[in-house]
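Incident log, structure service

09:12 report received: a user says their structure output differs between two submissions of the same chain.
09:20 pulled the input from the user's history:
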Amino acid sequence: MRVHPPPSTLQRVAFVGEPAFEPHVPVQAAWAEVRYFPVTDGQWEAALDAAQAWGANATLVFRPQDLTPELAARVPGAMRIGVIPAPLFSAEEIERLARSSGPDVQGFRWLTYLETPASPELARLPLLQTLPLPVDTARCPAGPRLEVRRMLVADWASPTPEAMEHLRKLGPVDVLSSHATTEEMIQALEKAGTLVYASRDLMGRFDPLPLLAMAHGLLVIADTVFPGEWNIEPEDEFLYRPDGQWARSLDEVFRMPVSFRAVRIRAWQKMREAFDASACFQRVLHDAHLFADPVAHLASLTSTRPPVATPVAVESASARAPEPSAPEALGAEKVTRLTRPLAAVPN
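09:34 re-ran on a clean worker, output below:
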């Protein structure tokens, strides 16, 4: 969809959530002033007060189900959006969101969800759009590194012990702990060349690590796929292999680094075209204002393009069609017939 240019005065957009969500927030944006307010030790009040003191015009909150309706009413800004980054199953959390979101509630005007809701309870929430957790690609400017042999495995998505043994015979393997900080995770991604990932669920639903790895230029090899509506294609942007074939695939990667060069580049580029945090959240806010009040939002947009003059067609006398002998009937179909010189086909 087309996103209209921003107004001359940039709005202040606040993002609030746990520190783990900071890599998914733009450090800067051309369309707004942005700032992240981390929630530490569950202290939502302090983060919301800081965003209020900053003067946020709009606020996006990660995991809005963690806020009571009273806390949701304290979220600053004229537009307040809750970002649900992982599947939601708790009836209590869904009920809490129903009480703290909607057009007539002093809380979240809209919510986003990572996939098309499967349950009627979720579908009844004020869902604005499907939004997988995006990635701030500005934080990972380096491109794919074909020469790096180091492999990264997450301890919560690790292969069988037999498969790990085969991997260690091929090259160095780093195991990312589930207790790793955001900084430690980013450092591990910057050192690795391949992410090896095992999961019983679709990739990305509960864990943003595969998307972060692709944004950092890593080759992702996994025994599962991404949700279909995300349009991340196996063999085009990552390798879909059962763990029994990982050693053979990695051996090919290390012997011929250019063999999967196109896969790495397409994945790296897909993150920037479809999952970039700045572009995704600009679109979210545009849609939020548009669907809440279409007339007011479109009136507030100012075009930065200079006016374009209407072109004037110049018709030569020889090519001009003859004038009709009688006025054309109102509503009649208008048919333009070629003159004989224009319609003639040379032998």
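09:41 both user submissions now match this output. Likely a transient worker issue. Closing.
09:42 reviewer note: Residues 326-347 have pLDDT under 50 and may be disordered. The domain at 137-274 is CATH 3.40.50.2000 (Rossmann fold).
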